[in-house]
């Protein structure tokens, strides 16, 4: 069976705003196959000006609150970067990358389907670490 990688049509550089970027990240997250017990919030972190591009940094913080523990013992963050190249026409779509807080591996939404297991692994590792302390 072939896995279908879900992605969204990204806005063009010309139509990009910080708010639109955050909306589109939420739109992308809505395509991920994640159980409804997971809750997240996303936020804009910073704008970075480089020689060849502008980069907009965002974070989505994930956790599983419960009635007994409305504040999760641990959370997992996914960091997003939206890149606007100086070399591409402003009618070209922005480029989007993401990485997990525990990893240096940078992923592209159109090349890699997000896995809920990644969030679980981060949280389990954090809980194991805090229990050791």
TrEMBL record:
A Pfam family recorded for this sequence: AKAP28
GO molecular function (one): protein kinase A regulatory subunit binding
Superkingdom of origin: Eukaryota
Entry GO CC: cAMP-dependent protein kinase complex
Listed name of the protein: AKA14 protein
Provenance organism: Callaeas wilsoni (North Island kokako)
């Amino acid at each position: 069976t072939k896995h279908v990688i879900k992605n969204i049509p990204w806005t063009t550089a010309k139509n990009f705003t910080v708010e639109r970027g955050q909306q589109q990240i939420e739109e992308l997250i809505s395509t991920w196959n994640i159980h409804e017990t997971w809750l997240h919030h996303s936020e804009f972190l910073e704008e970075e000006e480089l020689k060849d591009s502008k980069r907009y940094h965002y974070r989505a913080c994930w956790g599983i609150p419960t009635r007994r523990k409305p504040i999760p013992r641990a959370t997992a963050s996914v960091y997003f970067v939206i890149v606007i190249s100086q070399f591409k026409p402003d009618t070209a779509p922005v480029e989007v990358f993401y990485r997990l807080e525990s990893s240096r591996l940078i992923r592209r939404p159109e090349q890699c389907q997000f896995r809920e297991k990644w969030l679980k692994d981060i949280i389990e590792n954090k809980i194991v670490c805090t229990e050791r302390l």
